[in-house]
Amino acid sequence: MNTNLDIRVYPIEEPKGNTLAFASIAIDDLAAIRGVRVVDGEKGLFVTMPQSQDNSGIYHDTAFPLNGDLRKEINAAVLDEFQYQASLDPAERGYEKRDMAGGNTRQVGEGSIDTKVFPIAAPKGDTLAFASVGLDDLVAIRGIRVVSGDKGNFVSLPQSKDKNGEHHDVAFPLSGDLRKAISNAVLNEYKQQIAERKQGLADRLAEGKEQAAQHTAPERETAAKRAPGLGE
């Protein structure tokens, strides 16, 4: 199956570091990934997917293609588009705004959303769990959150904050129906995980009570044998 890519690259006019450009990618009219970077490394230019840092200080890709060949294709396309855009006068650069509500956005088939949810054992804020999804074996999105809100739990896609303090989705589906399907899949998996945890806790408590009862029964029997009779 051929995969359609919409690559948009925005060179930085005066780079202050090794990041030379930012890019966005729409994969097969299915999902978009923002925050992709063109980086100048020791061995030349390369492409990095958007990343987030965990509690251990390790960086992980927030969104990325699930196919190695597709990733190579994306890397080549981003670098080619960067070279082209960098060759233009800044005033000539730009793209037409993408029609996010277009009728050509592809829907994933049934069973094509692979969902993994990781509830937080003792939430200290409104984030109850983290999740990741895979779409049609093409795109993975990590850093999704299950959030407790005034109107109930909802799903928040991974976000980044721009220089103006505004938050933007880093990776997101290109249709409203698919966004709803992802939200439903994540929330349903979260509910199942919580139910299984509660059932597991109840089973462990019941097992503990049973073991305690089995342990104390012989002690009571031994004590009864040792107790003197009424006539002694």
Give descriptors for this structure:
232 residues; alpha+beta; five-stranded antiparallel beta sheet; elongated
Task: Report on this structure.
It is a single chain. The model has no long low-confidence stretch (mean pLDDT 87). The chain has helices at residues 68-87, 176-226, and strands at 5-11, 19-27, 31-41, 44-48, 51-53, 59-61, 63-65, 113-119, 127-135, 139-149, 152-156, 159-161, 167-169, 171-173. A hairpin with a 5-residue loop joins β12 (159-161) and β13 (167-169). By secondary structure, it is α+β, with helices and mostly antiparallel strands.
Structural class: alpha+beta
Q: In percent, how much strand structure appears in the residues?
A: 35-45%
| Strand/helix succession | EEEEEEEHEEEEEEEH
State the share of residues found in helices, binned by percent: 25-40%
State the separation between the terminal residues, measured CA to CA. 93 Å
Task: Assign an overall shape.
Answer: elongated
* Low-confidence regions: none
How many beta-strand elements? 14
Assembly of the depicted chains? single chain
Q: What do the pLDDT scores average to?
A: 87
Q: What would you report as the Rg, rounded to the nearest angstrom? A: 27 Å
Q: Report the sheet with the most strands, covering strand number, pairing sense and barrel closure.
A: 5 strands, antiparallel
The helix count comes to 2
Brief write-up:
It is built from two helices and 14 strands; from the N terminus they run E-E-E-E-E-E-E-H-E-E-E-E-E-E-E-H. It has 232 residues and is α+β, with helices and mostly antiparallel strands.
